[in-house]
């Protein structure tokens, strides 16, 4: 039917910090379960917000040596270490690795972490975020000196207020909305500006080289990226994540169904309108199997020209739903392998 294309020594803070946590009291611990669970964006190519006050130095007090005052994308002012060493930044592992850094814990859904990063993160403990962010006392056990939240939805329900009492907490509006912008902001935040700029240049060079090869091999052809999930099937547009890579960075055409949309719901009734020469299939974390079987076994699916020609490829869901340049580079490699003969 289709072809497969991819084959926390400090247990707690020192006594002073523990005392501080006790002083903070029940208000902090009462929010243990707070934090909205956000499914990993599927990330690429954002900012707005409400102001808050800095948890550390006063507005007119001098910054301690080795620290800097910054403002996050929601308007919070905070004082951060010049060179943070223990960073908690769930779902930003890809970008941290690009800057030569490792987090104190890595995002996971149950026991399933970002598979494509496991060689680099094999010694980093997994932290299950399937039911929300960790409680303050769990996070405190990792002794972070900087907390970074990749989306504003993570900061709600008192999470920001609680986390900022543990360590400086920086919040992105949506780090997955524009990977290049987010990487530069992250580089500046952690004192790795040069590394961020170098990584971006290498990525842009790689994308430009691949784009030229694709123009020669399949110039003018359209690619449809179908994401199968428990709630339905969506056609990825060109404004974020893998859709951005394929359609913006690599210049491949997209279906009229997403010419002006970030994504489109695809049903059997709409399927005949899917104009694409190639179809990329993503089974989201293996949770879209039922939807995938239902659609691909239908006569409507089998009647699509791309299907008849054998131009349907199932992709690695982990890096094709990834949010960072490492994932993007792997997407480029896959696309060249599939479409450039």
Automatic annotation (TrEMBL):
Its main location: other. Residues 45-62 have a biased composition (Low complexity). It holds the Pfam family Peripla_BP_2. Residues 84-341 form the Fe/B12 periplasmic-binding domain. PROSITE patterns: FE_B12_PBP, PROKAR_LIPOPROTEIN. Signal peptide: none annotated. Residues 34-70 are annotated as: Disordered. Keywords: Signal, Transport. InterPro entries: ABC_transptr_periplasmic_BD, Bact_iron-sidero_bind. It is found in: Cell envelope. Coiled coil: none annotated. Transmembrane segments: none annotated. Belongs to the bacterial solute-binding protein 8 family. This is ABC transporter substrate-binding protein. It comes from Paenibacillus thermoaerophilus.
